[in-house]
Amino acid sequence: MAAVYEVQETISGFLAGDALEQLAGYLADVHYADLAEALVAFDLDQQLTIFRIIDNAKAAQVLFELEREQIAPLIKGLGKQHLAQIFREMSTDDAADLIGDLPDDKQEHYLSLMSRSDAEDVQELLEYGEDTAGGIMATEFVAINKEITIEEAIEVLRRTARQAETVYYVYVVNDQEQLVGVISLRELITAPPGTRIREVMRTTVISVNVHTDQEEVARVVQKYNFLVIPVVDDIGVLLGIVTVDDVLDVIEAEATEDFLSLANVHREGQYLEMNDIQRAVLRLPWLIALLFGALLAGSVIQFFEGTLESVVALAFFLPVMAGGPGNVATQTLAVVVRGLATGEVASHQAVMVMLREMRVGLIVGVVCGSVLALIAFVWQGSATLGVVVGLSLACSMILATALGSLCPLIINRIGIDPALASGPFITTLMDVTSMLIYFSVASVLLLNYLR
After folding, report:
1. Whole-model pTM?
2. Tell me, which fold does domain 271-449 have in CATH?
3. Distances (CA, A) of 71 to 63, 67, 110
4. Is 332 exposed, middle or buried (0-12, 13-18, 19+ CB in 10 A)?
5. Which residues of the chain form CATH 3.10.580.10?
6. How far apart are CA 62 and CA 33, in angstroms?
7. What is the three-class DSSP state of 79?
8. Chain-centre distance of CA 5, in angstroms?
9. What is the CATH topology of the domain spanning 2-136?
10. Which of 47, 107, 301, 384 is 20 to 30 A from 101, alpha carbon to alpha carbon?
C-alpha cells in the first residue's frame, strides 16, 4: 500500500506542475498493477491524461486490471482510435473478458475497433462458456510441426514468440493441428540443430478440453505445478493455452463465490458492486425462510414448556445449546466445502469424511460438555443438571459434525454447488435439533430424578 501511495503522490505532483514529459518517464517504470491501483485517486480527466501518456501495451494491462465499473467511462473518453490501438496490444483472452462484460450492443461496437483476425479470435472465445477452459484460454501460442528440425523450430520461435502469450513450453502438432507432444525451451535450445522435433519431444502431454470447467482447469494446473496448460477440442486439435495468471484469477473468483454462497449471498458478478436494494433483495429470501426455521426451534421449546417450568435453570443454558452446536456445524461445513473445492474430498468419500468429522465432534463434544457440566454443578449444586447440560451439548456437537459434513457431500453428489449448503441453514437446523436433544434429555433425567 505504501508503494501505491507513493505512486499517487508522485503522479499528483507531476500533474499539478503540468510536467507531462517527466510524468511519462516516471510512468514507464511503474508496474501496471501499481498504476491500476493508484488510478482510483484521480478524476476521469486525470485518468485519461495518464492513459494518453503511457504506451499502448501498458495501457492494455492497466485497463484489464481495473474494476469493471471504472472501465466504461475510460473507454468512452479515450476515443475510437486510441482504444483500437490499446485493443491491438491486448491478448485475446483479456480482450474477451473485457468485452464479454459489456452489453451485447456495445460488444459489436468494440469488436469493430479491432483488427479482423483479433476480432474473430475474441468472438470465438466469447462463444465458449465464460466458466470453461475455452472462456479463459489465450489463442496466442507457439505450435510447431513434429516433422520440422530443431533449427527450423527456433526460426519459427523467432518469428512468432513476440506475439505469443508465453514460450515456456512449445507445443508440437501433427498435420491436422492435433496436439501430439511438447518440448521445453531449454530442450529446444540444447538439442542438435538437425534433429527432428518428433525425436526429442515428450509425447505424454497433459491437456484440458475446451469445455472443461475453469475450476477443474485450476485444479489440474495446481496438481501438476504447471505455468501453462494446453486446451484442445474433442478430437485433440490444439486451440489455445491457459496460463497460471488466469488460473490465479479463477481461484480468487471461485473462492469469493464459495465464500458468498456460505452466507447465502451467491450471485454471478461482483456482489459489492450492487446497490443497497439489490444486496438486500439478494439476502432477504433466505433470511425470511430461516426465520421460519427459528420459529420451529421456538416451537420445540414450547412443546417442552412443562420441563422448562419445572427446572428454570435450564433456561440459563439455552444460548449455549443453540450457539455451540451451530458453530461446530459451520466449522465442519467450511472444512468440507473447501475440501470439495480443492479436490481433497470426493463425494464417494462421504461415509469416511462424516465418520472422521464425528470423531472430531466426539472429542470436542466431550471436552465442551464436561466444562459445561462442571459449571452447572458448581452453580446449582446438582450433578443431574450437570449431566443433562453436558450430555446434551456433547450429543448435539457430534450430530453437528455429522450434519455439517454430510449436507455438502450430498448436495455435491446431486450436482449442486456444495457451498449452497450454507452456514445459516446449518445453524438453523442445529438450533432445532439441539433444542430437541436438550429438552428430551432433560425430560428423561431431570423430571424423573431431580424432583
Report:
1. 0.61
2. Tetracycline Repressor; domain 2 (1.10.357)
3. 7, 7, 13
4. buried
5. 143-243
6. 7
7. coil
8. 28
9. MgtE N-terminal fold (1.25.60)
10. 47
pLDDT digits (tens), the chain, 451 positions: 447 889 899 999 999 998 999 999 999 999 999 999 999 889 999 999 999 999 998 999 999 888 877 888 888 888 888 888 888 888 888 888 888 877 777 788 888 888 888 888 888 888 888 789 998 898 888 899 999 999 999 999 988 887 777 788 899 999 999 999 999 888 998 999 999 999 999 999 999 999 999 988 988 998 888 889 999 999 999 999 998 888 888 877 766 666 555 555 555 445 555 666 766 666 666 666 666 666 666 676 667 666 666 667 787 888 888 788 888 888 888 788 777 766 667 666 667 878 888 899 899 999 999 999 999 888 888 888 889 999 999 999 999 888 888 877 777 776 666 655 455 677 778 888 888 898 888 888 866 654 4
Domain range 143-243, CATH architecture? Roll (3.10)
Pairing of strands 179-184, 169-173: antiparallel
Print burial letters for 177-202: b (CB count within 10 Å at least 16), e (below 16): bebbbbbebeebeebeeeebbeebbe
Q: Of how many residues is the chain composed?
A: 451
End-to-end CA distance of the chain: 65
**402 within 8 A of 353, measured Cβ to Cβ:** no
Q: Which amino acid is at 358?
A: M
Orientation of helix 56-65 relative to helix 92-100, angle to 10°: 50
